[in-house]
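sry for the spam today, last one i promise. struct tokens for design, 224 residues
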């Protein structure tokens, strides 16, 4: 069991991110994912167009939250995506400052999750800057400067989960970064994460999901 907002949450929640085909969406929904993520960042191998996203989202039940991942999006991109597909949560994975998040929320009235890149414990202090404007936080591994062609997220990197042990935040949060069916139980046990997020951890190759691994990951999470 983990505690969040002072309440005991018996079930660890899961998000499958970077979905780009119907079979993967079905596997995530059928496997009990609480969130599915669609990527709107052109440089990502997992990127989908607004039109593709609309097709992927059309049969997703309301019990599953649809998350749109953006990296420093301008207003034109947000308007284009939101005009085509209904998103329940905006995941901002770039260098968006608190003022930008407040502006996006005011304009679109959609909850925002701010992703923070973590390499050392000091990086967690940035969470305080967003606690009054964001609705959720996501902690992901920071790619080293020497990593070639690193993406803002989905690099399959793991950070030291012990940095989150006994930490508390004023917002719900997710843990990401190199999670898969083999390490997610340990990650939750150490960090106390109420929700876990995976993308590369359930892929055959970048951008190509393995439906069997999606199912295995979700089964493992639900057994925690």
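last one done:
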């Amino acid at each position: 069991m983990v505690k969040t907002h002072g309440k005991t949450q018996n079930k660890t929640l899961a998000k499958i991110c970077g979905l780009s085909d119907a079979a993967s969406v079905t596997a995530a929904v059928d496997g009990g994912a609480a969130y599915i993520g669609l990527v709107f960042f052109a440089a990502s191998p997992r990127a989908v167009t607004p039109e593709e996203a609309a097709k992927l989202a059309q049969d997703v039940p309301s019990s599953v939250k649809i998350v749109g991942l953006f990296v420093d999006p301008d207003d034109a991109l947000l308007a284009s995506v939101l005009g085509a597909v209904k998103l329940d949560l905006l995941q901002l994975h770039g260098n968006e400052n608190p003022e930008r998040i407040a502006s996006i929320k005011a304009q679109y009235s959609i909850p925002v999750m701010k992703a923070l890149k973590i390499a050392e414990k000091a990086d967690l202090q940035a969470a305080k800057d967003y606690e009054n404007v964001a609705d959720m936080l996501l902690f992901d591994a920071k790619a080293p400067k020497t990593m070639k062609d690193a993406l803002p997220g989905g690099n399959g990197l793991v950070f030291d989960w012990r940095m989150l042990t006994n930490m508390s935040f004023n917002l719900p949060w997710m843990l990401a970064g190199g999670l898969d069916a083999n390490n997610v139980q340990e990650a939750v046990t150490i960090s106390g994460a109420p929700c876990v997020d995976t993308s590369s951890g359930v892929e055959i190759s970048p951008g190509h999901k393995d439906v069997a691994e999606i199912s295995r990951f979700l089964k493992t999470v639900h057994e925690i």
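The chain has one domain: 12-222. ok im logging off now
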